[in-house]
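Work Package 3 (structural annotation) set out to generate three-dimensional models for the target panel prioritized at the project kickoff. During this period the team completed the workflow that converts sequence records into discrete structure tokens, so that structures can be stored uniformly alongside our sequence database. As a representative example, we reproduce one entry of 445 residues exactly as it appears in the project archive.
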Amino acid sequence: MDIIMENQERLAVVICNHNKGDRTTDCIRSVLSSHHFVIGDTLKIFVVDNASDDDSASVITKAYGDRISFTRSDSDLGSCGGLNLGIEQALSEGFPYICCMGEEVTADPDALKTMFDFMAATPSAGLVGGKIFHSHMPHYIQHFGMSVDFRHFKASMLYADTPDSENIPNLVYCDAISGSCMMVRAKAIEKAGLMPTENFLYWDDTEWGYRIKQSGFEVVALGDARFYHSANPMHRCDNTKVNYYMTRNGMHFFMKYTKPEDCMRMSIVLLRSIFEDFYLHKMGNAHNMAQSDIAALLDAISGVRGKAADNRILDNDETGLGFVSFFEEQEAVYMEDDDPFLEQVIRQINPDIVFMQLPCTEAVTIIRCDSILGIKDFNFPLDYSENVIYIDKNYKMLSSREDMHLIKNYEPSLQLFLYAMQPAVLRRVEELRNGEFQKEQKDFC
């Protein structure tokens, strides 16, 4: 890839919009309010409308058409494809640094300069991000860097849903940066390539960060670069696309990049995770979501990439109303362990609810756990279980005698699933090792 290097003080900002015109204008407004940069001189904003079917294009161009470079794609390229379109435009104009921002993100006035100055002073940094806060709870961090864990085969948002404090480091050296806001060095793109468009949605930022780090650059999140994300943690997507792409692309990532000697363990860990999701969806009568779990797994094993077939994306029948309606009806609760973020969520659902300092029969007791499917020993007699609920780290809730019976059948069902599916996963890993995996490894040499 030929990249023209010109004025090193110039920054390009790329924003990909899909049916969020008002949010995109808020994002643009925050970028234009950034200190140090002057539009048309040291700053250029590239907005890509990714096949929106609402009035986003007119909303954006009416507000800022004379201050941005606006491009519309008539076909849905996915988030990574839309960003790549803007990135390629910025590279062709010689920008040494490019900041990609999600349309639901706004920046503090000093955030872009903080990231820019760090990259300019740190040639080893190929990708940097900021500290992203919840817009509706601005003292809580949404995420601050990402890690890729090849022991448990998962990617994690660091410091997610924790209150900001002086104990959190100001620099976090990590494996990837969320696509909601990431600044990349043009030379890093030259070496690692553009974002992986075959993902279409999700895991594209994780894989890109991993590839940039594998190509010899550092990936860093900066605490002084503050951004705000307007997405609500309890937001419900109307369809199963998040579940499908997160599952399919995560499976593909670890099948592709896990060391050969760890692939047997990887296959078991990932299959257990997918079956857990499937079982929880079945317990919640979310049949479309359960189908999405299995479809994503089968497509990952079959090597299906890019945009999913229409019959893969179904209406989301996981309402989450059980969690919401349960707390709407409660007058008092007692939490066995303090969890300020969960308390905030519950208070948003029911502002009048009382949090007791000690357990009592008038209050429902909340017990936190890693996974409700992993519960082996219930701490309370079954007769008292109506007054006790378990909530895991993903806010799945066990609150009925029926749930308990389903959990007791979980382990034997899991073992049968592993027996049926593990050989197919390992066959796909072997195919990757003999084909595209070897090609990727050569690209990093």
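Residues 410-434 form the longest helix (25 residues).
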